[in-house]
Amino acid sequence: MAPPRSSAQAGKPAADMTLADRVTQVLARQIRGGAYPVNARLPTEKFMTQEYGVSRTVVREAISRLKSEGLVETRQGSGTVVLDPKSSEAFRLGLPDGNPARGVLRIIELRRGIEAEMAALAAERRSDAQMAQINRALQAIDRAVRDGGDGVAEDLAFHIAISRATGNPHYTELLGLLTRALQDAIRVTRGNEARRADLADEVRAEHEAIRAAIQAGDVQAARTAAFLHMQNTARRIESVDPGYWSGASGEAANRLARANLGAVLREQPAKSPKKP
């Protein structure tokens, strides 16, 4: 299939671009340039497959990426509609700039204050049943790693268990809204940490410090432990060697670079993650 009529995506060599990259880049440029005004409908899939010489699968992937960037949304009865591109920049979690670590670090920075306050509130308010759930969640991470898993889902479940112990359901709802971004960030950080036993041990000790402070009801210690965990997570990512960003870790980092909080918040309210 002939590639769409587009120049190379910013920061990405033309040779490395996929057809979906190219179509996304063309459409994004047209939207930001005003070719498609706000509330205008994008052309049909059939038209775009013919215009760009690509398959429907490629077009659908491009539309999905535009949605994640907050440039379009699907409206019942109206098809795919253009949103205000200026609004799409306001809540960007990451910006493609050639540095795959940057999107991950921005998520970690966002989490730092959230996780610290969640841990502090959990130490102050948690019930015995909620503490038991936090304990089980931490044990589940260990089991997953022992069994050869990456522990990503279990790591997220540990933080969700802490969010439930705050007594404020909005923390759990917020984690639910950000689940995809959090999963990608955790996948990148855990993948890096799994490569070295000393880093894995650091993370285990940091999780245990959070758990122990919540168990003891020590508000300040819990806040500090969670803050330091995020700070150390950022340090571990900053020191990773460039070769780490090939493969799945690089793909997850690139998804974070395209993630857009404004687009997420415009979607229907997400349900809170179900209790295990």
UniProtKB/TrEMBL annotation:
Domain of life: Bacteria
SMART domains: FCD, HTH_GNTR
Keyword DNA-binding: yes
SUPFAM superfamilies in alphabetical order: GntR ligand-binding domain-like, Winged helix' DNA-binding domain
Domain annotation HTH gntR-type: ranges: 17-85
Pfam families for the chain: FCD, GntR
Protein name, per record: Transcriptional regulator, GntR family
Organism: Pollutimonas bauzanensis
